[in-house]
Specification:
The protein is α/β, with parallel strands linked by helices and 139 residues long. It is built from two helices and eight strands.
């Protein structure tokens, strides 16, 4: 591993209401994107894609049982994916893993004409965005 760039994101920790449910949705996506489990304990997992860690933990200190992306805090996580074909494949496969397509009437340009992406929401209200790094629309 190369040394991370000064100021690069080291990790994000997400508190989840049901670890097993989150592993079925976000765990599937992270594994599909190339992340691997680096640590595992009864109430959490740490996923790694050098140099970034993404931690999912079911904390007893939670004050709600559903994420509300419209409240202060994290709105969503956005991930680079290889190309438009990968965006479409992940969008199609996501429903089998607890995700639903957001903004279907605007897909795949909900972020604008020069932005090829899909926006997904899981059953706990958590949103991810999958952005094509290389798409004909972007060239």
């Amino acid at each position: 591993m190369n040394r991370p760039t000064h100021g690069a994101l080291h990790h994000v920790e997400i508190w989840v209401p049901d670890l097993d449910r989150f592993l079925a949705s976000l765990g599937w996506l992270l594994q599909t994107l190339g992340y691997t489990v680096s640590q595992s304990w009864d109430t959490g997992r740490s996923w790694l894609l050098e140099p970034t860690h993404l931690i999912l933990e079911q904390s007893p200190a939670l004050t709600a049982d559903r994420h509300d992306r419209l409240r202060p805090g994290v709105n969503h996580l956005a991930f680079h994916v290889e190309d438009a074909t990968t965006v479409e494949k992940l969008a199609a496969d996501a429903a089998q893993h607890g995700w639903s397509l957001m903004f279907p009437e605007l897909h795949p340009h909900a972020g604008g004409k020069q932005h090829y992406a899909t926006y997904l929401e899981n059953t706990d209200g958590f949103e991810v965005e999958l952005v094509a790094m290389n798409s004909p629309e972007l060239n």
